[in-house]
Design the sequence.
C-alpha cells in the first residue's frame, strides 16, 4: 500500500532563495519513450523540452506547520514538459525523471511521500555580486553539474540555437508549470499536484554549463542538446497542494 502514501498526502510550503531553470530542446522521438501512459509531450515547433531546475530551498515543511519546523537544503529536478488530457481540458505540467538533494532527511521523506525519485548528492553554491554558480556531484557521476549564472541587470538574449522566436515564447517553457504529473501503475492513474506561487517573475540570464553528465546517458547520448532558455529568480514563497489521483481510461 506504499503507493497510497506517495500521492503527496498533504500540502507543502517552502521558500526559494535561489532558483535556476535550464531548458533543453530535443527531437520528440528522444523524449516520448520517457513518458508514462496518460501524458503527451508539450511541444513547440516540433521540439520537446527537458528542464533541469536548481533550487536553494528554505523552510520546507507541511503547510500546517510554522516555518521554524522547516528544512533547508539544495534540490535539483530533472523533468519533461508534458500535457494531460482531463475533464477540465488539457493541463500543462512536468513529469519528474529524477531529483537530487544534499540532505538525507529530504531523501527519505521525498521518496516516501512522492514519485520524484530522490538521490543523495553533494552541492556547493558560490554567490557573488555579479555571478552565482552551482557545483553538484552525484554517485558514479550520474548527474554531475557545473553551471554559472551571470547576474546582469537586463534580461539576457536567448541562447544561440534556441528554437524560440521570442522571450515570451520561451517563458512558456521556463517552469515550473502549474502541475507535476506522475503515473501510479497500481491503479493506472496519474497523480496530479498543483503548485501555487507568488511574485514569480523570472528573468532570462546568460549561463555557462561546463559539465552536465545526465545528458551523457541514454536516451540523450548521441543527440546534441540545444539550450533553449535559462531563467533565474530569487526570494519567492512556494507551495504544493495535496496530490489528486486522475484515473486513466482502459
Sequence:
Amino acid at each position: 500500500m506504499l503507493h497510497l502514501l506517495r500521492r503527496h498526502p498533504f500540502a507543502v510550503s517552502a521558500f526559494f532563495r535561489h532558483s535556476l531553470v535550464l531548458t533543453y530542446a530535443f527531437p520528440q522521438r528522444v523524449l516520448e519513450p520517457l513518458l508514462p501512459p496518460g501524458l503527451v509531450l508539450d511541444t513547440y515547433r516540433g521540439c520537446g523540452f527537458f528542464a533541469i531546475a536548481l533550487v536553494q530551498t528554505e523552510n520546507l515543511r507541511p503547510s500546517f506547520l510554522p516555518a521554524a519546523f522547516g528544512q533547508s537544503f539544495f534540490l535539483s529536478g530533472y523533468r519533461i514538459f508534458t500535457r494531460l488530457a482531463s475533464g477540465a481540458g488539457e493541463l500543462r505540467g512536468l513529469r519528474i525523471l529524477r531529483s537530487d538533494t544534499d540532505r538525507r532527511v529530504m531523501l527519505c521523506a521525498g521518496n516516501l511521500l512522492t514519485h520524484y525519485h530522490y538521490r543523495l548528492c553533494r552541492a556547493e553554491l558560490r554567490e557573488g555580486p555579479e555571478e552565482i554558480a552551482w557545483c553538484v556531484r552525484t554517485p558514479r557521476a550520474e548527474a554531475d553539474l557545473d553551471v554559472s549564472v551571470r547576474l546582469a541587470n537586463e534580461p539576457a538574449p536567448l541562447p544561440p540555437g534556441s528554437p524560440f522566436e521570442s522571450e515570451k515564447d520561451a517563458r512558456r517553457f521556463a517552469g515550473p508549470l502549474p502541475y507535476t504529473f506522475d503515473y501510479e501503475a497500481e491503479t493506472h492513474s496519474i497523480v496530479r499536484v498543483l503548485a501555487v506561487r507568488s511574485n514569480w517573475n523570472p528573468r532570462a540570464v546568460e549561463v555557462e554549463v561546463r559539465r552536465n553528465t545526465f545528458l551523457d546517458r541514454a536516451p540523450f547520448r548521441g543527440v546534441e542538446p540545444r539550450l533553449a532558455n535559462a531563467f533565474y529568480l530569487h526570494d519567492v514563497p512556494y507551495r504544493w497542494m495535496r496530490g489528486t489521483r486522475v484515473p486513466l481510461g482502459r
The mean pLDDT is 94. The longest helix spans residues 104-113.
